[in-house]
Amino acid sequence: MSARITTEHLRRTAVVYVRQSTMAQVMGNLESQRRQYDLAGEAQAKGFASVTVIDDDLGRSGSGRSERPGFERLVALVCSGEVGAVYCIEASRLARNGRDWHHLIDLCALAGSLVIDPDGAYDPRLVNDRLLLGLKGTMSEYELSLMRQRGIAARDAKAQRGEFRFMLPPGFCWNEEGRIEIDPDEHVADTIRLVFAKFREMGSARQVFLWLRDAAIKMPVVRRNVEVCKLVWKAAAYHSVVQILHNPLYAGAYAFGRTGQRTRLTDGRARTVGGRKARNEWSVLLRDHHPGYITWQEFEDNQKLLLENAHMKKNCARKSARGGRF
Fold it and tell me: How do residues 239-285 score in pLDDT, each as one tens digit?
């Protein structure tokens, strides 16, 4: 037994904190889960009066940009003074950002709780142990930033060549050679062609949507569950029609980075908000990259018409708000 673990610590509860960042890891990286849950057995073998396992944060990132009810529960238990030790497989499981990590260490020091990982037991009240814990937290945060930076650089390099794979909209699929091709399912392809044909005829996305509803024509929709994408048929929806008309992939162009994210502070916590970017801000736009349902010129004409229709709606809204002519 480590000299850091005293009888006073053993009288209290040992808390085992279990976390994995994504649902893909939760479903696929089972060995990491097993190692984390095994810490409960180690705590019992040390002689702690009771052991509590907190696994509410499976599938949640520790970057500090998402809520972690399990971590908040852990902090509350430490503040109650009932925790003798916090068990984790490594510092990155507790937090991937300095704010959460150092806040927890401060609370453990005040409550006299230890932090225990496979490398040993640390008492945050001792200067040397606190220094080591600080380094572990800093390295965890740096590691996350480094992995993200490398991943983004590799992704962008592949996207510039038009080789980065992402979830394709209905009507397309990746072939064995890693190229985009029109879906071999004729029912899917014919439905997409019908949307463009009706838009050329009616000149309005809303009218196309209403026509599809009246004709009881269902549309293909891609559903994603973790890493599995599945095509399902659903009743026509207005946003589905608009997404098809606005997507340059249907014009044979490889487009990547059409959306962006911004970070805002909300209630003292960083929140990520997504939104669409202007075409000149897209990361990649490669025309004539793959077979399309329409030409690029048709796509441009469609965008111009959709924009004009949107302006007409705004003008109508302003007129109606004035209550008519006086």
Answer: 999 999 999 999 999 999 998 877 777 766 667 777 888 888 899 99
The two three-digit tokens of residue 61, written as one number? 């990132």
Banded pLDDT at 325 (limits 50, 70, 90): very low
Query: What does the alpha-carbon distance between residue 101 and residue 224 come to, in Å, rounded to a whole number?
Result: 33
Residue 245, beta-bridge partner list: none
- Report which residue type is found at 208: V
* 149 and 281 assigned to the same domain: no
Radius of gyration of the chain (CA): 27
Instruction: Mark residue 248 as left, alpha or beta (left: phi above 0; alpha: psi -120 to 50; beta: remaining).
Output: alpha
Note whether 6 and 49 are within 8 A (CB): no
Range of the structural domain that residue 209 is part of: 164-322
- Match 């509860």 to its residue by tokens: 13
Active site residues: 21
The verdict on 126 and 197 lying in the same domain is no
Whether residue 1 lies inside any domain: the answer is no
309/303 Cα distance (integer angstroms): 10
Indicate the number of domains in the chain.
2
Does some domain include residue 299? yes
